[in-house]
Amino acid sequence: MKKYVLSFAILSLFYVESKACAWADPDYEYFNLFTQSIIRDKSYLPFLHSYSTRFYTDFKNSQIPNENVESWKKFFNNQLSYVETDYLVNKMNISDLNELKNGNPKNQLLKKLGFNFYKTYQEGIDYLIEAKYLEPYMRINYVENPNSFYYDRDQVDKNATQLDYKKTLAALNSLYIASKNLEVKQRYGYQIVRFNHYTRNYDAAILAFKNYVEPIKLKGVPYYMALDQLGGAQRGLKMNSDANWNFFQVFMNSKSHKESAFVSMKLSDTASFNNILKKARNNEEKNMAYFLLGYEDFNNPIPIMEKMYEINPDSEILKVMAVRSINELERSYLPIYYYDSNDPNKTVSQKTSSTPSNHDTNVEAEETKDQKLSFWQRIIRFFKNLFGGSKTDKTDNGNKDDQSDNELLDNPNRIPFFTKNNYWYDESTKNFLDDLEKFTNKTKEKSKDEYWQIADAYLKFLKKDYKKSIQLLNDIKTTNPEYLEEIKRMKVLNDIVSQPRIDAEYENHLMKEYAEFFVEKEVKKDSTQTDYEYYGSKPSTASFLKDVLANRYFIQGEDGKSFLMNNKLSDLQYNPNSSLVKSVEEFYRKPNKTQFEQQIISKNMNNVGNIDAFFSLIYGDRAMREADFEKAQSFYQKAQQFTGIPRMDYEWNNNTQKITIHQYNTNEYNGFNNISNLVFGHNVWVSYQSDPQKSMEKEDYTSFPMIKPMMNKLEIADALIELKKLGSGKDEKGSKANQLIGNLLYNTSILGYYRELFVMDIDNTNGGKYDFWNTDKKNPYQYYYKNFLDKSYIEPDNFDLAITYYKKALDLSNNREQKARILFQMASAEQGKYYQYEAKNPSAIDYSDPKWSEKSDAFQKQLDQTKNQKFRTYFALLKTQYSDTQTTKSLMGSCSYFNYFMK
């Protein structure tokens, strides 16, 4: 056996930009409880913490003020609003301004301003006309590398080289000389520098800056716009150190160009920020250089933050570093998924080649899609963290009344976050939290910004010191609306998370005080997003609080409520395990529900048609799998109004998805009706994707008129009850009746062609329901039922039930051919017992063991030996006593493994 290693490079593919692989976006895998964007200076929003994109993008562009617009607004003496100024400068058509200049404005804004507006600000308007004429051309000409294999850009795109170089410079020079307003004059200087830069006349651009921009002793917006172009020209001449310093100045002094200036610095000099620090002339420049160093190398930002603190504890960029650090901690402490070391789905990967879809009787091996899916899901789960309290101590009556709150809160296995077995949570993370708390506590004493008090309170929350966190929050005095909103949210968090038990009184408190966090708001899709790109908003405070409550209900033994906090009633179809279904039904039938239960939890009792019939069908199916046909009959009698397993139909048309509830036709299997009598037959070969007539063969039903060509589940239960009575006889008919019962039990087991019938599924295509995995727990969910559909859990089949009926049939039969067929069916059921044994005994060999292959081979040999010694009883009987029958010879031709065994 070969040992294959999945490289980290492959794993890293999961963490590409969200548009490439939205479901693995790391920025969507934790709860965003501390709002990063509450920093006062919004120009630093791009530099908040993000793994999915190069710069943080969870904000509207309008939040970052455009200093050029602000400059023009001031130029026009604030006669225009910011929005109007932006429209005039950046969006208005050049023809509108020319009409204003000619005294005949048609644009509504310009008509309102009037012709006197032009007279007053003539130089500024004339400049804007010239700038709008130049703007479409103001990009550098693309020069393709001869060896380039990239897409050839559209040659009709405008660029600066398409303008007449001499005429354009002459015009700009003339306008520069004519300008009396120094700010406008400097703007023309900026245009001259930019034009030379974009035509790749780099030396001329540098000279233009010295001759046209610097002599005007203004260092406002036009100056830094020109400085940015100067840096570009210097970079074109490989003057990287000079270019970098100028880009640094732009970064410091601009608001809306920080991203581009940062990128330019990175492109100019690989040692950019260290070199900048060496050139820093004052504390402000040193502080900014430290920020860039800390931002670029974020492994442990606290030493850099200490240096920034010594320079200026009120620095806005120090807050940016702090909020990035808090966000990093959130990713460790507050994941939306958990990695469960006891996750039964994880053990699937440890199975050998003997799988349900490729077992001994299979001649058409199926590579199923969700075998692949479960592999990738397990890889992703490996990187998920754990954040739910455990239910290991749950009693039948929930928590004992005399259980102390301290015990509940201090037990790391019962807390909804901060558990010690978090994958990413280690001692270094805890140390980082302690160090950041010390730093924040120190800074809040010296800084006048309430931000540091809020941050300190949040870190106390992460450390589970809810009382101290609330105390700090109550002491904060601020008028900042964003701060106030964060304080309010954090008070809610502390209140709910510190609550050890959720009872009716507390539920009423939730609805009275915090209803806004639980009443869902419709999420509107961005108009630029297509349906396949869109998958909702990031995990929110509300979703975190729901998880906390789901965990509390879970450890209180209120599984139904826990389930419905995160799932719909219809989701039970995917994992209809009995204990959970019973608890959900108990909640459904609970009288006198609280307002919270009615409005928040009950809303997830979604459309499954007739709810009573839905529950009855699940119970009836379970009774069938336990061979309790009378019990199944009683439930199926109550399930006759069942309208079908709730499934959705998806239709795509031009990136628009139409979703409708599937309507079952009269001849379609819907979970209750339209079941072929082939379910009482036997398989010719194992091929789940073949038509039933190809995979299955009918038995002789002549003596059993209760078996109709098509039946519903109630009719099947009725037939089984009659067959059971007939099976008590001592003749061939009794033998056949028992064989038919055994056939049905096997055919509806995990190995059978009709395996979907009693597990709330619509067909037998492979899925988590058909995996052999084992858990000794009645309920494998340990913390809550979030991500319910990522797991699969249905009580395992009892193959001894089918074997018992087959044994009765074998004992009563005198027909050797029939005995051979029965023995083969018994052997198939016994194979199911082996798969269950195999799942209970997975390999414990460490993959890093240098002798992994050798030990794995030995382990597989041991499994094969156990299989042959303990799980080949009926194959052995076939070989020793019935090898001469026609049935055995036929089976050898259709079952490769049986053929090998017989030889």
UniProtKB/TrEMBL annotation:
Which key words tag this protein in UniProt?
Signal
- Signal sequence, renumbered to the chain: 1-24
Annotated segments matching region Disordered: 345-366
Question: Could you name the domain of life of the organism this protein comes from?
Answer: Bacteria
Tell me if Signal is a UniProt keyword of this record: yes
Biased composition range(s): Polar residues? 345-360
Query: What's the name of the protein?
Result: Tetratricopeptide repeat-containing protein
Task: Tell me which species this is from.
Answer: Chryseobacterium fistulae
